[in-house]
Write a structure and sequence with these properties.
By secondary structure, this protein is of the alpha/beta class. It is built from 23 helices and 14 strands. The structure holds one RNA strand.
Length: about 600
RNA sequence: GGUCCGGUAGCUCAGUUGGAUAGAGCAACAGAUUUCUAAUCUGUCGGCCAUAGGUUCGAAUCCUAUCCGGAUCACCA
């Protein structure tokens, strides 16, 4: 039981005794540092029951608690805030509960009985992953970890957009200029190679457009008439007809891309339980549309296209099926959602997709609801904002994309350079050093991105992101390494951490308080799909610990009982840092 | 133009269901070291919480309007 639950129960008893009411409005908050106490009751809401001033009410409740609850050591009332101080024994008890819980703060996967599907990443196969995908992948993976820690049965899925005109563009350029080039021959990752041909297509296409415009053709017409685009469209048609040559090339080039993606995903540390390919799902959903037509939820225009009118809901009319009977994006998403629900009966379906698709998901949910699918309420669009760079906005159209592989490599390099400048890690073997540089570089990147509220547009500065001071991933990693180092030394001296019965000091109580919050933070982060909550929590804990560590000795402490108790506390803090950063997908080293 | 999201220190960001004097980090400045790992810690400086009204014991937080920035409103995905 956490502190708030405990004290809340006691105050409820108090309210019953004093005011003879059940379900009194109780509002708690952490006691601010400038006041004495551990937890604070806001007295204002209770004044309606007590019919007294906030100060009098607070005092009244405080006196009752002090008289009736042995764990309450003292209280004070400041301007209608009742600050309650709990006994050291209470905190000692909390610590021993934390210690006895082997997987403190984390539920075992599947114990909640709820199935949650998280779709994230969802790349196109015509170019490598970029900075925007990094935010997507980190968010998706972390949210999945957090939900799993809440005991849900989490299924991570990736929906790969492997078909369409964009792939045909790469394929066409490869046919024109490739001369049989392969990733092996070029010595290049497959996704990068295919991306290069996409760029080549774009160059050719633009050149043809300007040539046409020079002969007096309008820009719009030129875009439609350029031979390159006509060829690409022709290729798409052939693909849909199952033309063997086109399909074979498509398979080959997509294969290259997947090999490349696998490397990137592995480096990022993300994974999937199931991968869906759009080439298999793009025809889904037509039955649902027909069903909607029968029910009269949708309507057909003269040209045969199918629409839904959402103007009554403040939205527009939305196309669901083209006049030629083919699917659009929405049709497909209706189909996959339906298929997934039939298959898994999920209690929640989370789409990690950029905020440029907010409207799409609003419509998706609404359409499903109008069709009578109750589970449309289980859909949650985890929307995130763009990642900007100091030099300007990161948009693929503007050609300033930061490639995901390059970025990660750059982070690792910076970690290496900084370590060497500071003369760290000298006594550590080469291969372990390599591992550490990777851990630090990626930890910096992940923490920097995940600590920001997803829906906000954020600024990522590669130069400043590896700052080993302050609110950063490396700071957490370093703190963990120090804790482990002290514990190793203790082990050498045959010291076994234990909670014991020594009365903890104020500093220790402060840390136990922080630790005891962890399960609640995990629960809240799960409910709000928010890795940022975890990040903020673990940073606060780490900071608190660092000040403590700086001026309290542990191994030099002469009282053995206190020493062992501090070691125990140390161990638990290390464990929580490791667990919490794990929820963010950040690895934490034993030494660095 | 309609809809959605954002605007908090010079910079990057926190700020719980409305709660006490709005917080961190970076940067700047001033300190602390024979370390249990100083990649650390302490202190100072820094604010019309975009603006104006409203709701109430109490507003960065809720409501209304306005300003600024972004996204979106395709027979693209």
């Amino acid at each position: 039981m956490n502190t708030e639950q405990f004290i809340s129960q006691k105050v409820a008893e108090c309210a019953k005794a004093l005011y003879n009411t059940e379900g009194a409005p109780l509002q708690f908050q952490k006691t601010r540092k400038e006041f004495e106490g551990d937890i604070t009751l806001v007295a204002f809401p209770l004044t309606k029951l007590s019919r007294k001033s906030p100060e009098q009410t607070g005092t009244e409740v405080g006196e009752w608690l002090k008289a009736n609850v042995p764990q309450v050591e003292a209280f004070n009332v400041v301007k209608g805030f009742l600050n309650i101080k709990l006994t050291k024994d209470f905190w000692l008890q909390q610590l021993s509960e934390i210690v006895s819980d082997k997987s403190f703060g984390v539920q075992q996967k599947g114990t909640s009985g709820k199935t949650v599907m998280v779709e994230y990443s969802s790349p196109n196969t015509n170019k490598p992953l970029h900075l925007g995908h990094i935010r997507n992948n980190l968010l998706g993976y972390s949210v999945a970890q957090i939900l799993e820690a809440n005991g849900h049965n989490v299924i991570k899925v990736n929906l790969v957009n492997d078909r369409g005109i964009h792939i045909c563009k790469s394929m066409l350029a490869w046919k024109k200029f490739g001369n049989g080039e392969t990733p092996q021959l070029a010595g290049k990752k497959g996704d990068h190679l295919v991306g290069d041909y996409y760029v080549k297509f774009d160059k050719l296409y633009k050149q043809q457009i300007s040539e046409l415009m020079a002969t007096g053709v309008s820009e719009d017409d030129a875009k439609k008439q350029a031979p390159a685009i006509i060829e690409a469209q022709d290729m798409l048609l052939k693909w849909e007809q199952g033309d063997k040559e086109v399909v074979d090339l498509w398979k080959t080039m997509n294969g290259w891309v997947y090999e490349g993606f696998d490397v990137t995903y592995k480096q990022l540390g993300v994974s999937f339980d199931k991968i869906y390919y759009e080439s298999n799902t793009y025809l889904l959903g037509k039955e649902i549309v027909n069903d909607g037509l029968k029910k009269g939820v949708f309507f057909k225009k003269e040209d045969g296209s199918v629409w839904i009118d959402l103007t009554a809901d403040g939205l527009d009319q939305k196309l669901l099926l083209r006049s030629d009977g083919t699917s659009v994006y929405m049709t497909q998403d209706l189909g996959t959602a339906h298929q997934r629900f039939e298959e898994y009966k999920f209690g929640e379906l989370i789409y990690v997709v950029g905020n440029e698709q907010n409207y799409h998901f609003q419509v998706l949910k609404l359409v499903l609801k109008k069709l009578g699918y109750d589970w449309s309420d289980y859909i949650y669009h985890l929307s995130y904002g763009m990642v900007e760079l100091p030099e300007g906005k990161m948009k693929s159209r503007e050609g300033t994309v930061v490639d995901a592989d390059d970025l990660m490599e750059g982070m690792i390099t910076t970690a290496r350079e900084t370590s060497q400048e500071l003369g760290k890690l000298a006594g550590i073997p080469q291969d372990e050093q390599q591992q550490l540089f990777r851990m630090i570089g990626l930890g910096a990147l992940k923490y920097f991105i995940l600590k920001v509220d997803p829906k906000k547009t954020m600024l990522f500065d590669p130069k400043e992101s590896i700052d080993f001071n302050g609110n950063t991933g490396p700071f957490l990693q370093y703190t963990h390494a120090r804790i482990r180092s002290v514990l190793r030394k203790a082990q050498e001296q045959n010291l076994q951490p234990t909670t014991g019965t020594a009365v903890p000091g104020e500093r220790e109580v402060e840390l136990v308080k922080n630790l005891a919050d962890f399960p609640q933070v995990v629960a809240q982060a799960g409910a709000e799909h928010s890795p940022a909550l975890i990040a903020n929590y673990v940073y606060e804990l780490t900071k608190e610990f660092n000040t403590y560590y700086h001026d309290v000795s542990i191994l030099k402490e002469e009282n053995t009982e206190i020493k062992l108790q501090r070691l125990e506390l140390l161990q638990q803090i290390g464990n929580v840092i490791k667990t919490a950063t794990g929820l963010l997908g950040i690895e934490v080293p034993e030494r660095m």
